[in-house]
Amino acid sequence: MKVFILQFLGFLLFDGFLGSQALIIRRTFVVNETPYTRLCSTKNILTVNGQYPGPTLFAHRGDTIIVDVHNKGSQNVTLHWHGVKQPRNPWSDGPEYITQCPIQPGSKFTQRIILTDEEGTMWWHAHSDWSRATVHGAIVVYPKNGHSYPFPKPHAEVPIILGDWWKNDIQAVLDRFLDSGGDPQISDAMTVNGQPGDLYPCSRSGTFNQIVERGKTYLLRMVNAGMNNIFFFAIANHTLTVVGVDASYVKPLDTTYIAISPGQTIDLLLEANQPLGRYYMAAKAYNSAARVPFNSNTTTAIITYKGTNTNNTTSSPPLPNLPFFNDTNASVSFTGSLRSLGNKAYPAKEPICPSRVDTKLLFTLSINTLPCNDESCAGPNGMRLAASVNNITLDSPSIDILEGYYKRISGVYGTDFPRVPPLKFNYTSDLIPVEFRTPRNGTEVIELEFNSTVELVFQGTNLVAGIDHPMHLHGYSFYVVGWGFGNFDKVKDPLRYNLVDPPLQNTIAVPRNGWTAVRFTANNPGKFKGKPTGRHQFSTTEKMKSSRERKSSYSSCRAAEVLKEKKWTA
After folding, report:
1. Per-residue exposure over 419-433, b if at least 16 CB sit within 10 Å of its own CB, e if not
2. pLDDT at position 98, please?
3. Burial tier of 436 (Cβ tally within 10 Å: 0-12, 13-18, 19+)
4. Global confidence as pTM
5. Potential cystine with 482: which of 181, 399, 431, 517 (Cβ 3.0-4.6 Å)?
6. Residue 145: exposure state from Cβ atoms within 10 A (0-12, 13-18, ≥19)
7. What is the pLDDT of residue 313?
8. Which three-class secondary structure state does DSSP give residue 442?
């Protein structure tokens, strides 16, 4: 039996998995346009149930959530359940033209979210264009009934969702990005729970404020829903204890700050042990690439101790000491300190044993350039920016790839995605030949044996501009067994792997001009997507598509969907 990994963003297709359900929970999501005011101006944004951020889904480990999605907005949309493995259920995973057609305005689609061993915080978001900038929310998965957390029960739990806000319409921002061929417009503000914080204009009254009681402990369920940036986050005068990452428990880690990648979730314990008063929680972007533009401002929220005299608010709360915006050591030191809990109740499982590795893959992650269709684009040397894995940038299909696989529709994808880089060079050199910048377009997969153990090494390159690459794998969590700077050495670097208690994650930031090694077992049937979650996450081909071409793609996708419905009805 074969499994396929499809680029760009890597897809997995296979058969056979086991799963069990406890309770079945039903929820309704209505996608519609809602006016919101931020930074002194009002605009319509796409929301779920009129909320920004959207509603939180609550469940217990092993439950199934059924969500009826009604699209009453003005644009196509899909929803993805980030971190949920979805055993035998790729049809509800969400990426448009990969596992399904977009949900058209005026249409309804029911998605089934099957929870298995996930426990902790995950999130859901739109998976079409840049709709996820405002269409997102948290997923909270409690232990099974009768079971407890592997840490003392907190007094209360608080979702903390980091995001971005543009004063312009987000679709207009995307269209300009696609048309120009250069970097996207940076956001006008970062947000905490949808609010920029009182360091931004017209934002003081809406700043998120959490009341705490001295002597009690709070569980902060953090989500980085930002579009591009890794964030540093801290709370003034307080130590945080990390207890979970990506819905998997970790050994408690005391820290004064965290670094959280786009798409990542982190569970933190906050002990309210300071004198009565008000304290800022704050976040700002980490940016390791000098030539890449980013928003250097700070977003804030406030924790206020119960009993504090709030009538006197003339003085500002203290700000936390966050690392400098380009402090690479602070970013990788935090990420590299995470360890799986690895106790009897939550053991670190296969495939961390080295004898179990069946397949080894090496994927280069690059920023590239392509010739501009017009006279000049805004990318380097008048070219159009692109991104690639192993020198292939995704040629987006017009029929969803999952349908193409199950219906055996020829021409939807190929099967010659390279297992190692087709171009071998000093990936992290400051001097790389210009001709290496040009990738090829393709929709390719790798065949893997079902139930095989896979080691995948992500290698960042310095083509065009070396950047950090946050990577996410749909349908799976993986063990992060190693990382480092420079070029991966297949002989020396595995000797330094953590094969005892590596963290189990579904999102990981590959450091700038460095590498990260992960391991997983290809045992989840279906086709799932592995992708970058940050900057330059769009394929070049998709950037060139006009609105008319996108509608044509939908028509082709919908035609295949109708064939599928007729077959299943019969």
Report:
1. bebebeeebbeeebe
2. 83
3. middle
4. 0.90
5. 517
6. exposed
7. 64
8. strand
Residue 90 in contact with residue 475, Cβ under 8 Å? yes
Contacts (Cβ under 8 Å, ≥6 apart) of 330 = 232, 257, 259, 286, 323, 324
d(CA 65, CA 517): 32
- Check if the beta carbon of residue 301 is closer than 8 Å to that of residue 209: yes
Q: In a 10 Å sphere around its CB, with 0-12 CB exposed, 13-18 middle and 19+ buried, how is residue 447 labelled?
A: middle
> Rounded CA gap, 40 and 50, in Å?
20
The model's pLDDT over 34-48, given as tens digits with 9 standing for 90+, comes to: 999 999 999 999 999
Distance CA 244, CA 252 (A): 8
CA distances for 390 relative to 8, 325, 438, 451, angstroms: 9, 29, 12, 24
The structure tokens 């995001």 sit at: 163
Q: Which residue has the tokens 């909320």?
A: 51
CA-to-CA distance for 298 and 280, rounded, in angstroms? 11
Task: State the Cα torsion 246-389-485-332 to the nearest 10°.
Answer: -20
Distance CA 319, CA 335 (A): 23
Dihedral (Cα; 186, 192, 198, 202), 10-degree rounding: 60
Strands 240-245, 248-255: pairing kind = antiparallel
| CA 110 to centroid of chain Cα atoms | 23
Worst-scoring range by mean pLDDT, 301-305, 388-392, 488-492, 555-559? 555-559
Instruction: Please tell me which residue, 550 or 387, carries the higher pLDDT value.
Output: 387
Running DSSP on this structure, what letter comes out for residue 437?
A: G
CA Rg, the chain, in Å?
23
Beta strand pairing call for 469-473 and 526-532? antiparallel
Closest C-alpha among 209, 511, 162, 465 to residue 330: 511
Model confidence at 529, pLDDT cuts 50, 70, 90, reads low
pLDDT in tens, 293-325: 899 999 999 999 999 988 866 688 999 999 999
Specify whether the CB–CB gap between 86 and 475 falls below 8 A.
yes
Q: Mind listing the pLDDT tens digit for each residue in 330-359?
A: 999 999 999 999 888 888 776 666 567 999
Mapped onto helix, strand or coil, the DSSP state of residue 374 is coil
Residue 408 banded pLDDT, cuts 50, 70, 90: confident
Burial class (CB in 10 A: 0-12, 13-18, 19+), 330: middle
List, in order, residues 6 or more apart from 487 with CB less than 8 Å away: 426, 427, 428, 459, 515
